Every structure is written in structure tokens, then in C-alpha cells.
Task: inverse folding
């Protein structure tokens, strides 16, 4: 073997990322399609409501606390309607894409027995961690893009006046909160050798944070708990579709996701790999 | 480059109760085919995975081509082709897709040798992995380990699941690899394949390296199971007096024994009678392991 061939190959990171994205492509289409169809259905359902006054009447029939708990503030516009019906709840669903994928990156690969074959190649461990994170983050962007496309496309087809910029901001704002839990799953995947734990822990945190934020909205006694919930930073000043992205929150949550990924590198570098 | 693999006091402990390996000292020269033998759970896979950087040593050192396994694992894997003992391949991928991916990772531009290996081993590169049998996955595992012509092949039980013809082809490839000056380090349970290709063997048991010696010495040292059938009953006493005999059973015309010496004396004794058949069986590796562990199975003699 020539000396040139014995040199550490370059470009393995991009190869790893593109390969991982290729493997995720089918899931991206399915997730984006399903979530997009849900959002499209909600858009289409807006047609069933008559004038805005009718909407206000419907809302007045519900307790204010309950409406606040689910982020339903204004249903008289399509943006307000989508804020309550889609973007308040959809992080609970979309976050499971990166959780499932990134829990599989290390712990899942160990359990399946594929990690030895992969790491038999000259790939530094950190590239496996970061490559999985970057590929999943990119795939997540594709998912929200598909979702946004189906949602906005339905609005056009049904002649509903949905603001384009608001639509873009609403789906883009799903990215940091989702990748936050993905980063946590990646860290758990690096720490534990079991994929089930790497799913269960972030899943639990996801639901606990949602609950903390919801309780904080409805009760002053629990208001301080909202600070510990990433959902607060997701929609601190209202939903992105009605009030725009809170960029401070966007970058804080994204930063936390990156921190999880960095910790995952540190943890995975040191530990044994079991199959 | 003086050595391909070198370990000094290499130790791995899994907590207080579980044993890994203890104080393994091993040297494998470049261009050598080294057989690493041991029963299940002996520590073969632990040793191999430490060489590749998958497990961190608890104590001691290991170097591959002079590179420390802890600090230079990526550089080592550039020079190594690895076939793990237990592995899985991505279900949705084909063998071709996997090889292309690995070729890009390794900077290998031409898959000609990969296709040649696949053809020789009968590996189907076009079907998704989930549709392949264990043997076919093993073939793809071998191809991915060897296609980039690495200076060192580390193969953990490479012939598991392969049919005899493919095993022969694999052994031919190992001999070609050696002829090219490259090194092969592989673990095995099969004495015949070890005998055919290995220059030296190391035997590990209960985490400790029991011995390292040339293959012919191991094979020569190994005992034989012998069954002699005569045309009539024979006297037991002369056979009892033979040197190196254990587990002697004389049942009428049939004599069975384990012989630890050369067969000359036994054959001359047998020649005094009319011999109808002679079976001269080599031991399994498991039996050789038991011998080195010192717990040679002793079949109780029937006092007849």
C-alpha cells in the first residue's frame, strides 16, 4: 500500500454527513408529509368558520385559562388559528424525529451491531457524533420546509390569506426546539449503551417541559417554572406565526442543542464501545 | 517498521467481577499470518477491539505499526482492515452501496479489487442486506475488510457461516495477502485452517495468553485419538505400557486411546496382531485448549 494511501483520509466528515442524510431521506419525506398534511388540514378547516365575530363567540365559550394553556389567543385570523391548533402542539410530535434518529446514532448502532463495521474505518469518534447531529439538523430543516410548503400551498389553493413570511417563520421556529431534544437524545446515546434510554429520557423531558410551560401559563403559582422549559423560549412573546421569531430564544435554544452535542463528543470519546 | 502488533501487559477489566484480559504480551511481525486461538469468552474479541480503539485498556500498552492504540486510533484504522466477530450491516443498503461508502471514507477511487473479491467469495452486492443470509453478510464483511488492501488485516472468526468452498477461497486470499508482505491477525476455532495458513499461533484462555509458538509446533504437540480394530481380542497390558497413552479402553478386538507421543511404538505393537482398521483423529482446538489449561479430559478407564 502506498504511503499516500496510508495517510489519514480527508473529507470523511462530509462523506459521513451526506451518507447519513441519504439514509434519512425516506423518513424526512414521511415526517414532512405527515406533519405537512396535518397543518394543511388545519388550514383547510379554517374555511368552515364564518366571519371573525363567529370565531370570537366560539372562543368566549371557553375558560380563558384553558385557552391560555394551549396558546389559543386569537382565532380570528388564520395565523392565530394555526398558532393554537398547530404550532402550540406540533413540537411534541416533530421533536421525536431527531430523538429517534439521534438516539440511534451511537447507542442504537451499538445495539444493532453496526458500529464496529463503521468505526473500523478511519473516522474519529467526534465525527460520528457531529456528523449525525449535522445530518439530522439538516434533515429537520427539510422536514419543516416540506411542512411549511404543504401548509402554505393549501392556503393558496383554498384562497386563504396566510402571510408568507409568517408561515416561514413559524416552521423555521420549530427547528431549534426540535434539535434541542435531538441534542439531548444524542448526549444520552453517548452516555448510555441502550437506545431505549436515549429515547425515554428526552421524551420525558419534552413532556415535562411542556407541562411546566402549560401550568405556568394558567397559574401564577407555577409561572416561574416556565423559565426551565424550552417551550417558554420557543414562544415567549407569542407564537412565531403571529408575532415573529424571538431570535434571542431561537439562538439560546439552538445553543443549548449544540452544547448537548459537544458534551456528547466528550463523553463518547472516553467510553468503551459495546456491541 | 519492526512490528505490526505489539502489546505489553495489556489488561482489560470490566468492573470487579467480570474478567477481560490480563497482562497479555504479544508481538506480531509484519508479513506474518498470526492465529489467535481460544475458546468462547477467552478474551480474543476483547484483545482485538482494544487494538482497534473500541475498548480502552485498563492497564498496559498496545501499538499497531508503532502507533499507540489509545492516541492514534484513526491512523491505525487507516492501515487496518477489520472484520468484527459479531456485526451487522445497514439493512437498507446493498453491498455495493456499503463498499462505495467505505471507499469514499478511505479515499479509495477504484472498486476493482472489491468486485474481484466479491466474485471470488460469491458475495451478492446487489441485494439489500436485510435479504441476505448470515453467510452472505459474512462475505460482504470480508470484502469490506480487504478491498482497500490494508497492511494489516484483523479478522475475528472470518470463516464463520461460510461454506467449505468459500472457506478455501478465503484461505487462498490470506496466502496471497501474505505473499504481498501484508500481515494477517485472525481468531479461529478451526485447527485445519490455522494449520494451513498461520505462521504462528497464540492461545488465550480465561483472559491470559497461554502460549505463542509456531503452528507446526502446536500441531505436532497435539495429541491424537486412536481407534484400532483387530480381527480378534487383544491383551490390554502391552498397550498400557506404551508411553504417552491415556484414556485406554480395550473392548475385545477394539482398542481406543489418546496418544501424546509419536505413533511409532504404538504402530509396532499393533503390527504384532492382524489390524483390520486404524482411525487416527486429530483433536479439536477445544481439546487442545483444555490441554493447555491443564484440565485435560480424562476418560475414566473401564476396569474390565
Result:
Amino acid at each position: 500500500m502506498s504511503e499516500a494511501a496510508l495517510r489519514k483520509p480527508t473529507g470523511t466528515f462530509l462523506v459521513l454527513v451526506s451518507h447519513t442524510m441519504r439514509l434519512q431521506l425516506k423518513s424526512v419525506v414521511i415526517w414532512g408529509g405527515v406533519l405537512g398534511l396535518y397543518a394543511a388540514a388545519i388550514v383547510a378547516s379554517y374555511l368552515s368558520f364564518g366571519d371573525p365575530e363567529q370565531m370570537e363567540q366560539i372562543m368566549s365559550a371557553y375558560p380563558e385559562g384553558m385557552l391560555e394553556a394551549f396558546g389559543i389567543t386569537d382565532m380570528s385570523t388564520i395565523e392565530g388559528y394555526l398558532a393554537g391548533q398547530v404550532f402550540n402542539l406540533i413540537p411534541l410530535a416533530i421533536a421525536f424525529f431527531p430523538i429517534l434518529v439521534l438516539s440511534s446514532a451511537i447507542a442504537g448502532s451499538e445495539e444493532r451491531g453496526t458500529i464496529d463495521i463503521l468505526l473500523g474505518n478511519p473516522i474519529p469518534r467526534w465525527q460520528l457524533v457531529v456528523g449525525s447531529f449535522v445530518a439530522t439538523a439538516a434533515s429537520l430543516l427539510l422536514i419543516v420546509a416540506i411542512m411549511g410548503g404543504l401548509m402554505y400551498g393549501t392556503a393558496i389553493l383554498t384562497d386563504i390569506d396566510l402571510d408568507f413570511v409568517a408561515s416561514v417563520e413559524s416552521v423555521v421556529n420549530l427547528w431549534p426546539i426540535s434539535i434541542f431534544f435531538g441534542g439531548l437524545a444524542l448526549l444520552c446515546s453517548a452516555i448510555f449503551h441502550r437506545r431505549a434510554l436515549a429515547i425515554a429520557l428526552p421524551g420525558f423531558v419534552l413532556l415535562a417541559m411542556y407541562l411546566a410551560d402549560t401550568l405556568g401559563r394558567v397559574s401564577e403559582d407555577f409561572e416561574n417554572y416556565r423559565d426551565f422549559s424550552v417551550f417558554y423560549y420557543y414562544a415567549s412573546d407569542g407564537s412565531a406565526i403571529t408575532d415573529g421569531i424571538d431570535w434571542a430564544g431561537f439562538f439560546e435554544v439552538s445553543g443549548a442543542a449544540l452544547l448537548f452535542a459537544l458534551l456528547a463528543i466528550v463523553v463518547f470519546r472516553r467510553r468503551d464501545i459495546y456491541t | 517498521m519492526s512490528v505490526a502488533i505489539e502489546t505489553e501487559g495489556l489488561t482489560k477489566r470490566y468492573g470487579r467481577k467480570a474478567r477481560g484480559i490480563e497482562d497479555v504480551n504479544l508481538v506480531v511481525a509484519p508479513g506474518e499470518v498470526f492465529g489467535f486461538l481460544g475458546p468462547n469468552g477467552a478474551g480474543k474479541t476483547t484483545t482485538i477491539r482494544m487494538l482497534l480503539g473500541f475498548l480502552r485498556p485498563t492497564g498496559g500498552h498496545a501499538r499497531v505499526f508503532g502507533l499507540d492504540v489509545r492516541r492514534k486510533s484513526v491512523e491505525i484504522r487507516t492501515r487496518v482492515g477489520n472484520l468484527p466477530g459479531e456485526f451487522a450491516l445497514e439493512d437498507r443498503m446493498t453491498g455495493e452501496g456499503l463498499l462505495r461508502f467505505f471507499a469514499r471514507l478511505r479515499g479509495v477511487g477504484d472498486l476493482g479489487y472489491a468486485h474481484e473479491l466479491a466474485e471470488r467469495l460469491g458475495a451478492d452486492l446487489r441485494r439489500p442486506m436485510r435479504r441476505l443470509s448470515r453467510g452472505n453478510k459474512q462475505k460482504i464483511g470480508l470484502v469490506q475488510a480487504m478491498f482497500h488492501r490494508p497492511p494489516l488485516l484483523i479478522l475475528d472468526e472470518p470463516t464463520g457461516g461460510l461454506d467449505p468452498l468459500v472457506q478455501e477461497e478465503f484461505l487462498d486470499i490470506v496466502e496471497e495477502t501474505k505473499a504481498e508482505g501484508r500481515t494477517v491477525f485472525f481468531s479461529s476455532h478451526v485447527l485445519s485452517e490455522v494449520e494451513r495458513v498461520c505462521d504462528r499461533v497464540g492461545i488465550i484462555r480465561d483472559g491470559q495468553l497461554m502460549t505463542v509458538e509456531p503452528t507446526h509446533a502446536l500441531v505436532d504437540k497435539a495429541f491424537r485419538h486412536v481407534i484400532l480394530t483387530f480381527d480378534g481380542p487383544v491383551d490390554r497390558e502391552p498397550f498400557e505400557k506404551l508411553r504417552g497413552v491415556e484414556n485406554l479402553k480395550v473392548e475385545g478386538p477394539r482398542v481406543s486411546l489418546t496418544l501424546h507421543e509419536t505413533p511409532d511404538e504404538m504402530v509396532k505393537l499393533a503390527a504384532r496382531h492382524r489390524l483390520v482398521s486404524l482411525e487416527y483423529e486429530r483433536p479439536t482446538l477445544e481439546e487442545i485448549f483444555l490441554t493447555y489449561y491443564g484440565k485435560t479430559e480424562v476418560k475414566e478407564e473401564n476396569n474390565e
Remarks:
- The first strand of chain B starts at residue 5 and ends at 14.
- Residues 295-304 of chain B have pLDDT under 50 and may be disordered.
- The first helix of chain B runs from residue 44 to 51.
